[in-house]
Amino acid sequence: MRILLVQDDDRDIEALMECFQGEPFGARVVVARSGDEAVEHLHGVRTGSNSHRPHLIVLELLVAGTSGLDVLRRLKEHPGTRLIPVVVLTRSRDPGHVVESYQLGVNSYIVKPEDDRELRDTLRTLREYWTRHNEPPSL
Fold first, then answer.
1. CA separation, residue 40 to residues 1, 35, 86, 88, 102 (Å)
2. What's the pLDDT tens digit per position in 76-85?
3. Nearest to 45 by CA among 16, 13, 79
């Protein structure tokens, strides 16, 4: 499984990498530390082979450069990336962000818990759902 993680917080990156790369999952995680890096990666996916296409994108809305909402908008506007599932995992509790994310086609919106243990529990639940229970589209 390939995951694109759009995140700029080192603590959250570490927790997500540990969660998805640990046994028995061993996912290949690519980190984009800004919205601009995410857009660049997705442009490469559109023009390259499927070997770089993520099976899942975990997106923080509050990143440097191009906003997470703009990344989501660009992703869902393009036929080559539209069907990639996106989970917003963010610190933003802004109701406008929630509504806009769903209007743009996000698959799930999760507010990150502040407590490290709760964050790890949330990530385990996220991992279990997306790696074991979800049926992804054929791309």
1. 20, 9, 17, 19, 23
2. 999 889 999 9
3. 79
